[in-house]
From TrEMBL:
It is an enzyme of class 4 (lyase). Belongs to the FPG family. This is DNA-(apurinic or apyrimidinic site) lyase. Residues 245-279 form the FPG-type domain. Its cofactor is Zn(2+). It comes from Mumia zhuanghuii. One of its GO terms (molecular function) is class I DNA-(apurinic or apyrimidinic site) endonuclease activity. The keyword tRNA processing does not apply.
Length: 289
DNA sequence: GAGCCATGGAGAA
DNA sequence: TCTCCCTGGCTCC
């Protein structure tokens, strides 16, 4: 679930549910007790995502909540049905499982589970953390040149660079595989061999795909001509639901050329690609700036 | 119902 | 490179 689009969507959902309201915080699981106590009873000001990080600000509290969902974390935002909900109303808002942080207001509540990180950061700590991240395609303040400068001089594979949050913030394993396919790029090509025009195209495509992901809350990457209806094929059905070209389609025929999709574990993560649409690159001359 | 695996990343070794 | 986090959707029985 959590690539960058998920966190940006959650920021929007949290704002819609809580911004401007007095909130109550608790940690039923017990691992965020001190932090929850610090913000308890405060007005929620704003939630904001940067890459896969989510920050939540409260009035009158210098620190912000920093959340990282990791691989298995989730943040469920609910609205109280009219007349049934209320702060502390455990009948309407039961605690199920290990709830790290519960945020409540008169009209909504949210439960955080399984997150890698849930902590309070001072403004200085937050600034230092964000400064370590690469540009986020979903943010208006993103500077794609910063990522290009890292990629352009790197001997690391483009597949690994796209997943490096210090190079690019918010891209995960699905967008990585799909963007490489859509641009017919060899995942194992070193970053320094990527051409500037290719990077510009990749960045622009990520901006569009990820914005779509925020809007629809899922990852869809296939072009209209490769959608199930257009090809007369069954729609994909699995836990993320979106239509994709190669991600988790090992041994299945490529939607474009029918060559079986390949997979390989690279740096501990599964990489998927089409060996025909994304052939081994023959580039040998470094491309500069 | 049990077991497996996953869109991530920190920290240990 | 391995372990942990300890959720949740899927497959298999």
């Amino acid at each position: 679930m959590p690539e960058g689009h998920t966190l940006h969507r959650l920021a929007l959902d949290l704002d819609a549910a809580f911004a401007g309201d007095t909130t109550w915080s608790s940690s039923p699981q017990g691992r965020f007790v001190d932090g929850a106590a610090r913000i308890n009873g405060r007005l929620m000001e704003k939630a904001e995502a940067y890459g896969k990080q989510l920050f939540v600000a409260f009035a009158g509290v210098e620190e912000q909540v920093r959340i990282h969902l990791g691989l298995i974390g989730g943040l469920a935002v609910h609205e109280s049905p009219p007349g049934t909900g209320g702060v502390g109303d455990l009948g309407a808002r039961p605690v199920v499982g290990q709830v790290r942080w519960r945020l409540e207001s008169a009209r909504s509540w949210a439960d955080l589970r399984g997150a890698t990180v849930c902590t309070l950061l001072t403004p200085e700590e937050q600034a230092a953390y964000v400064a370590r991240l690469g540009p986020d395609p979903l943010r208006d303040d993103a500077d794609p040149d910063r990522a290009w400068r890292r990629i352009n001089r790197s001997r690391v594979s483009i597949a690994a660079l796209l997943m490096d949050q210090a190079v690019l913030a918010g891209v995960g394993n699905v967008y990585r595989a799909e963007i490489l396919f859509r641009h017919q790029l060899d995942p194992f090509m070193e970053g320094r061999f990527l051409r500037r025009a290719e990077w510009d195209a990749v960045w622009g495509d990520l901006v569009g795909l990820m914005a779509y992901g925020v809007l629809h809350n899922r990852i869809d990457t296939v072009r209209p001509e490769h959608e199930p209806e257009a090809m007369g094929r069954p729609a994909r059905k699995d836990d993320h639901g979106g239509e994709v070209y190669v991600y988790r389609r090992t041994h299945q025929p490529c939607l474009v050329c029918e060559t079986p999709v390949r997979t390989e574990v690279v740096a501990g993560r599964n990489l998927f690609w089409c060996p025909r649409c994304q052939p081994r690159s023959r580039r040998r001359t470094p491309v500069r700036g």
